[in-house]
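Materials and Methods. Structural model of Iron complex transport system substrate-binding protein. The 343-residue sequence of Iron complex transport system substrate-binding protein from Solirubrobacter pauli was retrieved and submitted for structure prediction as follows.
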Amino acid sequence: MRLTLILAAILLVFAGCGSSDEPEDRALEGSTATVETATETFPQTVEHTFGTTTVEKKPERIVVVGLTEQDIVLELGYKPVATTEWYGDQPYAVWPWAQEALGDAKPEVLSNADGFQFEKIAALRPDLIIGANAGMEKKDYEQLSRIAPTIATPKGGTQYFSPWDDQVEVVAKALGKPEEGAKLIQQVKDDYAAVAAENPDFKGKTATFAQNAFYDGEIYVYPQGLSTEFLEYLGFTINPKLTPLVKNPGEQVAVAEERLDVIDADVIVFATEKASDIANLKKVPTFGFLEAVEGSRAVYTDPILSGAMYFVTPLSFKYILEKLTPALKDAVAGQSPEELVGG
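The predicted structure was written out as tokens:
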């Protein structure tokens, strides 16, 4: 799937709304708050790209209008009344690594394919709207804020996929749990540091994170700092050849077939989704000349692991660490299989 951030709206059309078969008004029943793992503190004033938002009391009806923030909300002990489908058509727009936290909740699933569904959002009677990763513009923020207190992109971030830890901070603060949010961030970094220490061969190796296919003769890859932390935290150095090719912050680098040597590295991780993706990559004449491919140092991930790498949340980080680490060991050793890994 093409996941170019600047074309996120088009991608959402591919994904569809992902709505469940439950009646629309079923999300109005009951409260979204679950048993807390820490005491919430209110009021909280959250700073974001459009100013500040004050959450006066514990939210009971949370609507997530961003693509990935449901993970953070769930891990902090809340269950939203609505989530937003990005891609993958997972139940209630919640991927496997977060299903346990969702439990038996059945949130309404919104779609941003044609912009925010303001009427549906208002009908859900939210008392907090979370859109830290929603591509939100000022006019959207103003309209959403008339419905309920709204959390927008972290200050200094990009419309989509601001640094993951900044997203956790603003969401956790809005939920009255800033300290617990900080703990989630630190736990991810500590867990990765421990695995990095167990695998010293990772340190200093160059790595490229790439999408699954060529689109109009180009493949999209991720420069340092854009959804690459899962490799950096393990000790890898993100391919420095990509940095000069970045055109705008928060965007991937498009690499043409004839310039594919730019993506070569000690290890390449392709976010593949099906076996045919590998076969199609091999049809590109320059693909077979990549040293990482020739040397069995290319990793091809299954659709769930690919989704986890795209989500970049504390819950997905845990899934990546468990499922990707063995594959990275094989790749560094030049023993990576030409098959999907992660299941």
